[in-house]
Structure prediction request, 238 residues.
Amino acid sequence: MTDISSASAKTASKPNGEKGKTFARKVKNYSRYERFWHWSQAILIFLLAFSGFTVHGTIRIIPFHSAVMMHDIAAFALIFLWLFTAFWTFTTGQWRHFIPTNAGLWEVIMHYLVGMMRGQPHPYKRTLSRKQNPLQSFAYFSIMTVVGPLLWLSGLAYMFYSFWEGNAGNNDIFSTIVLLHLVGAFLMVAFVIGHIYMVTTGKTLSHYTKAMITGFEDMELTEAEVTYLETHEPDRIK
Ligand code: HEM
Prediction:
């Protein structure tokens, strides 16, 4: 077991004004599967946005029929990835990081709107049990429970239209489904743009991106967190 006294230590103020020691350590925050699903989801969403907006007529780089094929294959791959990741998230207990909370949400929003431009430190201190700030949890939770299902439900109804086109009234339902799919697509693109912006606001431009590639990131840990990791999950701490 590593001697925690050898870790660089500094005194940090806890929110309640009490003084507590924290230790700067490299922690593996993202497992191999987590990094795999993050990057494969990113690629699939990019392919879906590119092919979808080609079908819509906004982009004209590849032929229409190739875009339809790309969109259909990527959509099935993404649905499969989402289902498997939902299963993984629940069986590994990772779902706890995604539960939204409004505690500290306003401080984080104000940090991105004002504090960050003034060079103030991020108000949220990430812990082992809560690695996302409240704004992240809120955004990811909305994507998983609203935008994702809106896209795949409307997308599947769109894909299998020939099975339910039946009578004339269904034409209006179809137009509504296409509209809902487009709303979902715009929300997803807006999320991706916001996400890419947030990702560049770490200690350095590439801080968060490197963490999602290597799995490791610099964290300030409490003595209890260091002891916990060194005892129970030594591979996660350097
Ligand atoms: C995840 C499940 C998804 C399914 C099942 C799905 C399914 C479909 C289907 C069947 C079409 C009609 C063209 C075709 O057959 O390829 C379509 C169109 C489209 N999709 Fe998706 N899609 C999904 C996700 C996405 C995502 C993530 C985006 C964008 C971020 C997106 C954006 C679009 C757009 C813009 C259109 C064109 C709509 C129009 O104007 O007709 N889709 N989608």
